[in-house]
Design a protein that fits this description.
homodimer; 180 residues; alpha/beta; Nucleotidyltransferase, domain 5; five-stranded mixed beta sheet; 5 strands; DNA recombination (chains A, B); X-over_junc_endoDNase_RuvC (chains A, B); crossover junction DNA endonuclease activity (chains A, B); magnesium ion binding (chains A, B)
Amino acid sequence: MRVLGVDPGLTRCGVGVVEGVAGRPLTMLGVGVVRTPADAELGQRLVAVEQGIERWLDEHRPEFVAVERVFSQHNVRTVMGTAQASAVAMLCAARRGIPVALHTPSEVKAAVTGSGRADKAQVGAMVTRLLRLDAPPKPADAADALALAICHIWRAPAQNRLQQAVALHTAKAAPKGRLA
Amino acid sequence: MRVLGVDPGLTRCGVGVVEGVAGRPLTMLGVGVVRTPADAELGQRLVAVEQGIERWLDEHRPEFVAVERVFSQHNVRTVMGTAQASAVAMLCAARRGIPVALHTPSEVKAAVTGSGRADKAQVGAMVTRLLRLDAPPKPADAADALALAICHIWRAPAQNRLQQAVALHTAKAAPKGRLA
């Protein structure tokens, strides 16, 4: 299972590719940041994000793309740019037929550190350990992107089991075979 | 001057094309709504918005795209979808090298009705009158997209004059020729 994690942002969009399955050691295939100049026009910045994400998709051919779910409760000044960059990342993946999963920051933190309220340093330390790196990836956006990919690999089996259980339950609840 | 106005939204994205110059009667070249199913995955909905906007750009070849500026103070439940749809519209335009302008809802209302706090009905009535239509365009998102295009045509000369004045002032304030 190869996952591209995307920590969306207009100034710095973290990207990281992780391969592996739950319960086995994971491998980092790449990590980086797509940057766009803060003084460029918004449309041009979105085009630059698109070109950056496309390059990562071309190079690593991920089977899944995991994007941080953006909440509007966040910092009012940055949330719009984050939502717009995440839209571009989701668009690039969906255009290629790659499934997109959204994970909240606390789901990601809980997945890699055991606590949904872990700080950046703790996430960076666990990403370094889980991927057997020499040092935490810099900047934090890059480490967060890897954490998103790890979170997706670890949560996917549970989500699949949950979906199967729901499907089974729905099939049982509709004995006339409408959904079976 | 031919402008595509976009009232961004995931469920209904209003689009309208207006041609003309400030101080002269305006002509509507097209109006409509790009819709995406609420039960589709977010990535797929963004792809559908992209395809819809691309069709409008192909057909009408606008020189400018005017998009409603999204504020995060709005309804928390819908603002993310609005920001994401607007990102796709801006991306489509910028990718073709078409300048993108953002106008706030109150700028648009003030431009077409004289009041930044006008209601939907008043905006619809003025769009109908200014474009010499038989009836207000439905739904309101379509009328809003036309209002955005009209706003851009009317504001553009003032914005250009302002930019020229700023450029002149900057040039005067830098007599050593650094910016001249």
